[in-house]
Specification:
Helix content is 70%, strand content 5%. The chain is mainly alpha-helical and 491 residues long. α1 runs antiparallel to α3, α8 runs antiparallel to α9 and α8 runs antiparallel to α12. It is elongated, with a radius of gyration of 56 Å.
Length: 491
């Protein structure tokens, strides 16, 4: 209905009708009779169209009101107006027709009353249902209020429980910290116990070595007290004295086992500590593993070079005053085994860090330094230096990125592609004794390792970083006794 009324208002039909009426009034005496009749018919047609639209709006409005709305208006206004119009149009109405109209009107009134009564009863029923629904709604609201109260009580109880739980958590954290402190104390005690056991083993080795020397001296004393044929026997037995075992030879097996175990500990403990420390600054795990691997390899190279130089200086120092059944080479090795603490490990650490600073395979944030992993480098240099005193010495296997994976030397890491035949990068080197593998290393295998290696080499610039003067001075001030300053008293 609203759309029809809006269209009727927008068309301005009554304005058009008024304009046409005014125009006809002006031209009435000018135009002909036929034209006046045409104008009148046109106005009648326009009026009929407007009345048709108004009756359509009346019908829609009555339909929207339902069966009962607007009945009084139709009875008091529309029906009398229609009767007047029809009586004016057709004044001659018969008595039968009037009686029929009266009967129809009475029948319609009766129906209207019945419909009104039924409408009232339905309205009463709806009011009753509405009241019951409101009562139910009030009951539901009361239950909802009770539920809110219970929820508030539960929240308060939960908050109290949470506070108690937080206190328990704090207490547990304090207990955990104290437990960690006790564990650290026990670890230090265990380390001290290991040092004591190591010293005990060294003392036992020294005792065995002294016992052997004592037996040899007693044998020499007995030979010196024997008759004259002894000098020939002593000359004939003089080559046997050159085969007497030194301290290094006596402790070879124990030192070999201890160094192999220490190398495994470097992988299991110190490597993970250095990896955790580097991950604070470097998010790429692959780069961290490369840095640790290169640090271990460079530590072995530097330690082997330092051992050769140290050995040459010891030989040079011992050669003027050397005497005894063992050779000069054995005496030098034996001296190094007895005085491993004279090794200038800090100088080797500095050389390793300088070598890593110019290594093109690794990169590092400029705000930190490779000194972060100096503990791992220092321990690795000491182990590598001590491994050179063995016969044959222990060394690392040659490794290069993109090489063919060898199951005898390496085991795959957990994130490797187990079907890939090439090594992407190494996590830990393999320990070799000649051509035999003593301890397996760890490698990461991926497909396309050669392509990835060439791309990384082309994208990695060469860095150079020097150690700060303050650190270098501090390192020089803390160095141990150098073999160049050895004297006969120290030997």
């Amino acid at each position: 209905m609203a759309d029809t009324l809006r269209r009727l208002a927008n068309t301005s039909s009554f304005s058009v009708l008024q304009d046409k009426l005014e125009s006809w009034h002006k031209d009435y005496h000018v135009i002909s009779c036929d034209q006046n009749l045409n104008r009148c018919c046109e106005l009648i047609e326009l009026t009929a169209k407007i009345q048709g639209q108004l009756f359509a709006i009346l019908n829609l409005t009555a339909a929207e009101g339902g069966h009962y709305a607007g009945v009084d208006t139709l009875k008091t206004r529309l029906l009398p107006w229609l009767g007047t119009c029809f009586s004016m149009a057709r004044p001659s109405v018969t008595d039968d027709t009037s009686l029929q109209l009266i009967q129809d009107s009475v029948e319609k009134d009766r129906r209207i009353r019945e419909l009104s009564a039924s409408h009232d009863s339905e309205v009463q029923k709806l009011d009753t249902q509405l009241c019951s629904t409101r009562l139910q709604l009030d009951h539901v609201r009361a239950e909802l209020a009770d539920a809110h109260k219970e929820l508030d009580d539960t929240k308060s109880k939960s908050a109290t429980t949470l506070l108690a739980t937080e206190d328990e958590i704090l207490q547990l954290k304090a207990d955990l910290r104290s437990a960690h402190d006790q564990v650290e104390i026990y670890k230090r005690k265990l380390g001290a116990l290991d040092d004591y056991e190591r010293q005990i083993r060294l003392l036992r080795d020294e005792v065995s070595y002294v016992s052997t020397e004592k037996a040899m001296l007693q044998e020499r004393l007995v030979r010196s007290r024997s008759p004259s044929p002894l000098p020939r026997l002593s000359r004939s037995s003089s080559p046997m004295r050159s085969e007497s075992p030194t301290r290094a030879q006596l402790t070879h097996s124990s030192r070999h086992a201890r160094l192999v175990s220490r190398f495994s500990d470097l992988y299991a403990v110190e490597r993970l500590e250095a990896q955790t420390l580097l991950r604070r600054y470097i998010t790429d795990l692959e780069m961290v593993q490369k840095i640790i691997f290169i640090a271990v390899v460079e530590s072995f190279k530097t330690a082997k070079l330092a051992y050769r130089q140290f050995k040459l200086r010891v030989r040079k120092t011992l050669s003027p005053s050397h005497f005894g059944p063992e050779s000069l080479e054995d005496a030098a090795v034996d001296y190094i085994v007895r005085n491993l603490d004279l090794y200038d490990v800090q100088s080797s650490v500095n050389d390793v860090i300088n070598a890593m600073n110019v290594n093109p395979r690794i990169s590092f944030p400029p705000e930190v330094d490779f000194v972060l992993i100096s503990a791992l480098i220092r321990d690795t240099c000491r182990v590598a230096f001590a491994m050179q005193t063995l016969a044959p010495p222990l060394d690392l296997a040659f490794a290069s990125d993109g090489e063919l994976y060898n199951e005898k030397k390496y085991r795959r890491s957990y994130d490797s592609e187990f079907t890939a035949p090439l090594v992407m990068h190494h996590v830990w080197p393999a320990l070799m004794e000649g051509d035999a593998v003593i301890v397996k290393g760890e490698a990461v295998t991926r497909r396309g390792a050669l392509w990835s290696r060439s791309r990384s080499q082309g994208a990695s610039p060469v860095r150079s970083r020097s150690l700060s003067p303050s650190r270098s001075l501090a390192f020089k001030s803390k160095r141990s006794l150098s073999p160049e300053r050895l004297t006969t008293s120290h030997l």
